[in-house]
Design goal:
It contains 21 helices and 3 strands. The chain is mostly helical and about 475 residues long.
Amino acid sequence: LSELMKTMERAGSRLNLAILDACRDNPFASATRSGSRGLAPVSAPSGTLIAYATAPGHVALDGQGSNSPYTAALAEAMPLEGSPLEDVFRRTRRKVLEMTGGKQTPWEHSSLTGEFFFKPKTAAPETSARDTATPPQAPDARIAEIAAWQAVKGTASVEALRQYMAAYPDGLFSELATLRLAKLEKPAVDPWPWTVTQIDRSGLEQTESEGIYEEALKLDGPQSTPADLTAAVTLYRRAAEAGLPSAMYALARSYDKGRGVERNIAQAAQWFRLAADKGHAGAMASLGTMHEFGEGVPLDLASAFRLYRQAAELGDANAMTSLGYLYAAGKGAAADPTQARNWYRQAAEHGQPRAMFNLALMMTRAEGGAADLNEAARLLRAAGEKGHAGALKELVAMYDTGRGVPRDPVQAADFLLESYAAASGKSRTELLRRPEVWSLPLRREVQRKLQARGHYRGRLTGIFDAETRKSFERMAAEQ
C-alpha cells in the first residue's frame, strides 16, 4: 500500500482512490516484538482517499456469495446517480453493518479536497411541458423591434422582409411579416383560381384584421399594464372573429395564460383548435401539448403525436421539439432515440433552446447516435445565450469537471451566476440546494465575482453560507 501511495503521489492526479477489501489484522502478530494488532499507518498524499473493508485490527468477512459483504455493498452504492464519493462510502458502511450484524465496520482515511462522483447526476431532458417559460424581452429590445417592423411593414421588397425575419425569427410581428412575404411572392396569375388559400389575395395592402392584430401586439408586452392587456384581448378577439388565424392563436394564448382575461383553458383549447383548423402550426403544437397533458381537452397521446407531426412538418420548432421528446420518452409512440435526435436537431437548427438542451443531453449520453461532447457544449452555450437556465447549469458542471471542455472554474462561475439569474422561484432554490457538488475553486470564484459586483461582503472561503446566499438574491434583484 505504501508503494501504491508513492506511485499515486508521483502521478500528480487530482484525485486518488485506494480501496482494499482485506482483513486488517496482522497474521504474524506472534512473530513481532510489539504484538500489536492492525496494519501500520499509511500516509496519504493530498487528494487521496484510502478505503478499508473493516476497521483497524478487525477481520473483514468473506461472506457466502461470489463477493464479500464489503465489495457487494460498494458495488451497489457506486452506480447511484448524483451520489458524492463520501455518500457512497457512508451507504456502503451502513449496508455492511446490516449484512454482518454489526461485526464489520468499513473505514476510510481521507485527505480529499475536491468533489467526485462515480456517476454524476445529469439533467433530465426538458419535457414538452405547457408551462415552459419564454425569457421576457427587454423593453429596449421591444421598442427596437417595433421600430424595425414599422420600417418594413409597407415595403414591396422581399429582401427587406427577409432581413427583418432573420433579425427577429420569433419576433412580435413574425407572422405578419410571413403574410406580407407570401403576398409579395405569390404568382402573377393564380393557375388554380378555384383553390382556397389562407392568404388574402386582395392585394398587398394590410387587411383590417391584420391592422387590428398588429395594434394588439403592440399593447401585449412584458411591461404592459392590466388595462393594456385587456385592450389587447379585445383587439385579438375582433381580428380572430374576422377569421385571422394568428389572432385566434394569440387570443387562445391569452386565455391559456390568463393575460388580459380570466384564465380559461377550455376557451383556450377552442381557439387553438379553430386556428389549427386554418393551418396555424403554432396552434397545432399548442393543442397537441394540451392533449399530451390532458388540460382543457381529453388526454389523448395519439392526437398529441398527430398534431405535433403536422406542425413539425410545417416548420414549427416547438412542435419538432415536442415530437422529439415523445420519441425519446416512448410516449404516444414507440421509443426511438434516433428519431428523437433527428427532430431535436431540426428544431435546434431553428434556434429552439429546449431542443438544443435535449439534443446536448443525448449527445453526452450517446443516445440515438455517437457521443459528441464538443457539440453538446456548443449547443448548451447556444441555448444559454437564449436564457435557458438548465443549459447554463449543465455548462457549470462541464466546465467545473472538465467534461468535454477544458476545466475552467472561472468560466464555470460565470455560467453559475447566469444560470441563477435566468432561473426563477423553485429553480433558484434547487440550484443552491447542494453547492458541495461543485469544486472548491468554483465556489471561491463565484464568491469573488459576487464580491466584485458589490453583492458579497464575506471572505472567499468557498462555503455557501447565509451571506453568500443573500448575495445571490441581491444580484437577482438587480437584474
